[in-house]
Amino acid sequence: MKRGIRSYVLRQGRTTPAQQRALDQLSASYGIAYRQEILRPEEIFGRQAPLVLEIGSGMGDTTARIAADQPGTDFIAIEVHGPGVGSLLQRIRKDELKNLRIIRHDAAEVLEHMIADGALAGLHLFFPDPWPKKRHHKRRLVQPEFAALAARKLAPGGYLHAATDWPEYAVQMAEVFNAEPLIARAAEAKARPITKFEQRGVNLGHEVRDLVYRRR
Ligand SMILES: C[S@@+](CC[C@H](N)C(=O)[O-])C[C@H]1O[C@@H](n2cnc3c(N)ncnc32)[C@H](O)[C@@H]1O
Fold it and tell me: What are the angstrom distances between the C-alpha of 153 and each of 108, 123, 211?
């Protein structure tokens, strides 16, 4: 997937000293460096287990909770925002999570270059940046090319779970995912803990939509 336009703008938000320390000291243990080479999860986690990827883990609280709740599954979080990556690194160490690692890089490139086709049991996309202004819609992650890439990376029966509090983006997501022939809308709902960004939306009265698809 070649996209000149990125789905994020890196703002140098405040990185706390603790986050910076985590970035400096814990990346080697709990981070995975980006490189254009297919990952071998069994080498990273030291076992064979279902692999779930999360795109845009933000501060990572929900990511860590999900990993703690599902010890039999391995998780890789992808996030570009330094403070968020630092926070999640701290959390992985504090909670001694053996089944969660993080990559600080553009998720579209990670999917394309580091994940084998058919390798994923699941893909989480919780509250991707909504880019509400029309002239910014082109930055939204969920576009036909992304849907095709994501679908290709799922194993048969693997799931894609997306959520948004932006109704018009939910419509776009449904249109884009419905048009992707490799995946089909699942009847089931999938439970997940509330996320930090979601809580902000809920406080503002936003309605949250979850969409679940499965690889055919
Ligand atoms: C609106 S926030 C939601 C964070 C979290 N999922 C939550 O619900 O609290 C979206 C996050 O996606 C990250 N992001 C956006 N585009 C990305 C990309 N292409 N690769 C990795 N992370 C990305 C942003 O840095 C941001 O932290």
Answer: 11, 9, 18
Counted domains in the chain: 1
Residue 61 falls in the annotated catalytic set: no
Domain span including residue 199: 17-25+36-215
Taking only the tens place, the pLDDT of each residue in 169-205 is 999 999 999 999 999 999 989 999 999 999 999 999 9
User: What distance in angstroms lies between residue 141's CA and the mean position of ligand 1's atoms?
Assistant: 10
pLDDT tens profile 125-170? 999 999 999 999 999 999 999 999 999 999 999 999 999 999 999 9
The answer to the question of residue 74 being in a domain is yes
Q: Considering 69, 95, 129, 165, which one is annotated as catalytic? A: 129
The model scores a pTM over 0.85: yes
Chain center to CA of 82: 15
Instruction: Judge whether 61 lies within some domain.
Output: yes
User: What CA–CA distance (Å, rounded) separates 52 from 90?
Assistant: 20
Domain assignment present for residue 95? The answer is yes
Ligand 1, atom 4: closest residue by C-alpha: 58
Q: Could you tell me the distance, in angstroms and rounded to a whole number, from the CA of residue 107 to the centre of ligand 1? A: 9
